[in-house]
Structures are given as C-alpha cells and as structure tokens.
Amino acid sequence: MTAAVVVTPVPAHVPDHVLVMALDGALDYTNADRLREELTAAVGEGHRELLLDLSALSFCDSTGIRILLSVRKLLQERDGGVTLAGMNPRLARIFRTTGLIHAFTVEPDLTEAVGSLNARPGPE
Amino acid sequence: MVDHHQQWPITDDLATLRDDIQRFALAAGLTGARLDDLVIAANEAAINVLEHGGGVGTLVMSSDGAVLAVEVADELGTLRPGAVPGQRPSGRSVRGFGLWLMGELCDSVTIEQVPGRSTIRLSMNLDTGGPAAGAGIAPVRGSIHPI
Questions:
Q1: What ipTM was estimated for this complex?
Q2: Sheet containing A105-107: which strands, arranged edge to edge?
Q3: Any chain A CB within 8 A of the CB of B43?
Q4: How many domains, in total, are found in chain A?
Q5: Which of B15, B51, B101 sits opposite A3 (nearest CB)?
C-alpha cells in the first residue's frame, strides 16, 4: 500500500489568524505534492500562522520538509510562520540533521503550541 | 537469525520499503537513533532512484554481523562517485540535498558507477562484534571499519 498522509482541521481555541491542522500517516515523495495542494488550499486569506499537529505523523522525508518549507514561505510573506507540534524522534532527527528545524517553531505537543500562540501578540 | 541478504524492487510504495528496511536492520542489531538514521537515509536513496535515477531500481540489504549495508542501484547510471556533498547544499539542488543527508546519517556512503547503473552504498557499523557469518559480502570501500 502506498503511503498515505491525511490532513484534518483541528478544533482549537486560537486567534482567527491561526490555522490548526493535523497530519496523520507518512509524508514522503509519493504524496508530498498532494499534501502541498491540500495545505495551500486550507490556508485562508486571513491566516498568517499555521500550527501542525504531527503527533500522528510517523515519517517525513526531505520531500516532505520541502513542502512544509513552501507553506512556511507563503506565511512568512504575511509576517507569520509554521509551528510544528508533537514530532516523534525520527521526525525530529531529520529536521535537526538538516538544520531545518530552525525554520519552524517547535513545540512538544498541541496543548503547549496552542498556549504559546495564544500568548503571542496578535496581528495589527 | 536474520537472512544475511535480502532485496526489494524500488517502487512508489516507499512505506512498505521502509518497513522492510526497518525489519531487516532491527534483526541485524541496529536500534534507536541509528536505526532511524538508516531508515531516513535509505528512503532518501530510494527517492533518488524515483526522482533522478530513471525510476527503476533495486534495494539490497546485507549484514555480516559487523557492518549493515544498504545498496541502492538504479538503471540509469548518471550518478557519479564523489557526488556526495561535504556541506549542505543551498538552494534547490534537490539531489545533492538527499545525498548530503545520507552522508550525515550513515557511517559511510560510497557511489559506484558502471555503464547503465549507479549504486549508492550506505553502511552502518554494528556494535555487536559478532563473528562475520555472512560469507561473500564485499568489503566496504571507504568504510572506517577494518576489513
């Protein structure tokens, strides 16, 4: 069976400019393009922060990281960014080794990530 | 005891391939972060075949008890020895990025090129210095492990 990655919206008490989504499955070369389309479509005009719950994501390769970087670029143009929450050790390993962990805000889990985003000053 | 040699075709079913790699590596004695490293690196080598190596290839795993090796061969043969960058490539050099990552994660990465075929060999030294039971394993070129 080909790797599948499913994106679902996550209900969370966050400001309107924050989009919260969860990734479930494995993000790799075979499904990265589709994920890019789904994530880009989910980001609305009013969003400038994306919080991704990765606690159910078992794997991410370099292609997957590129997709996350492209979404980050979109949000950076709005002075926002991407927060990654709940990475497993294998995910953390590839993000650290590539040095690309610094391109994202990393939180141990969704609850902490929501807390941090709520504590930040909102958009003007 | 694990089979000392096993091979799989590279297809777009990378998830199953990763499971196979993980199973073999675990049985060979690789665990923890180094197991993660090998699975990530071997997956990158397989992507390389799908994306740049003509789309057809084979992944072979072998273990002699001291070294666990993954050999990923394409059927294009454009990848040259010495193509592994020493520093992280910047910009959009995607193939170089995967190769660089393999070099960061594995104890040794070598590339062998013959007409119509390039083979990336990733190797990990195993902690357990058991007897080299796997006969017929080629010496690891460029490895720090004594032959």
A1: 0.87
A2: A5-9, A18-27, A49-60, A81-85, A105-107
A3: yes
A4: 1
A5: B15
Closest to A28 (Cβ–Cβ): which among B14, B101, B105?
B14
Interface of A with B in 15-44 (CB under 8 A): 26, 28-30
Shortest CA distance to A39 belongs to which of A11, A13, A5, A12?
A5
CB contact under 8 A, B104 and A97: yes
Residue B145: alpha-carbon gap to chain centroid: 16
Q: What is the mean pLDDT of each run of 10 residues along chain A (124 residues)?
A: 85 96 97 95 95 98 94 95 96 92 96 95 66
- Looking at the domain that runs over B5-125, which CATH code has it been given? 3.30.565.10
Give me the CATH number covering residue A54: 3.30.750.24
Other C-beta atoms lying within 10 Å of the C-beta of residue A97? 18
Question: pLDDT digit string (tens) for A17-42?
Answer: 999 999 999 999 999 999 999 999 99
CB contacts < 8 A (A, B): 63
Render pLDDT for B109-120 as a digit per residue (tens, 0 to 9). Answer: 999 999 999 999
